[in-house]
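Here is the promised in-class demo. Please do not try to memorize the tokens; focus on the logic of going from shape to residues.
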């Protein structure tokens, strides 16, 4: 992936349902902001997104503190909404091993 693309690395899926994914993330590049459009991609195959055109709909820092952004090095719980293939995401198993990223478009 290009280093210039803001991106969040997934550490844990907190909640996954049709239309919504909530996960614990760490920002590994740039700044990701509330309302931005992101793709869910494996870091090793950035040209093969698992889900596209998701919207960052919530960001919370530890202690349930609502935020409007996540910047480099910070961890947060992030919710994205949009069309998700729940079965395909669950089939990946361990998200840390899969090295999934939410990458700003």
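The designed amino acids, position by position:
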């Amino acid at each position: 992936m290009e280093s210039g693309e803001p991106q969040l690395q997934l550490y844990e899926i907190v909640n996954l349902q049709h239309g919504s994914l909530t996960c614990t993330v760490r920002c590994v590049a740039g700044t990701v902001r509330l309302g931005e459009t992101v793709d869910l991609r494996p870091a090793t195959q950035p040209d093969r997104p698992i889900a596209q055109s998701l919207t960052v709909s919530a960001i919370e820092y530890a202690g349930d503190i609502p935020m409007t952004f996540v910047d480099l090095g910070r961890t947060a719980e992030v919710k994205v909404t949009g069309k998700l293939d729940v079965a395909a995401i669950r089939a990946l198993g361990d998200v840390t091993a899969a090295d999934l990223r939410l990458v700003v478009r």
